Amino acid sequence: xxxxxxxxxxxxxxxxxxxxxxxxxxxxxxxxxxxxxxxxxxxxxxxxxxxxxxxxxxxxxxxxxxxxxxxxxxxxxxxxxxxxxxxxxxxxxxxxxxxxxxxxxxxxxxxxxxxxxxxxxxxxxxxxxxxxxxxxxxxxxxxxxxxxxxxxxxxxxxxxxxxxxxxxxxxxxxxxxxxxxxxxxxxxxxxxxxxxxxxxxxxxxxxxxxxxxxxxxxxxxxxxxxxxxxxxxxxxxxxxxxxxxxxxxxxxxxx
Length: 255
Prior knowledge:
This protein is α/β, with parallel strands linked by helices. It has six helices and seven strands; from the N terminus they run E-E-H-E-H-E-H-E-H-H-E-E-H.
């Protein structure tokens, strides 16, 4: 069902009234919808927050995860196209940036483009992943990599009941990301590139080259906080203010 692909976080619009705006968020590799729980607290009440829920996590734990970008984008495209029409923005973090970029293009082809694509903590497609690939590491090597980049607390490594099960989804997403190659054409949707200057896995100087992927306006914002900076409440509030400048009552996308 298309509803399985997207989870609504928080109450959304006040008093059950219709939301004016939608934020569609796509988490990092292996990420659950709860990764964006800090965002619900910083968004205006009339903004609907929908977060991607991919196979192999959340209420879809019993489904095998998908290991390529194309079927993930197909499922997400069907889900978004089935929603009640609203002005919306797509925000992807890390692996979610790859999905967000391809989802934007798919929805653009359907005549349903977002007002803005925000890509966070991921180098642009002109820099494909190179060997050695993280998805081919052993469980112990992958866990050490996740600890190094701040994706998991070192104290949790010993909790095999919590961590080992999540590695299947993480590995699948990493494989999808690392086998992805730059498409022949980009998008006309404006792009906002986001990153952290102290990200241990992304070269900050490359983020401005997301400008090559759009014929529309482009801008870049940089923060601190490592690879997962976007989930910190303060950063979330700053980025949310920028994204909600696209509300219908505002001249959209003044980048």
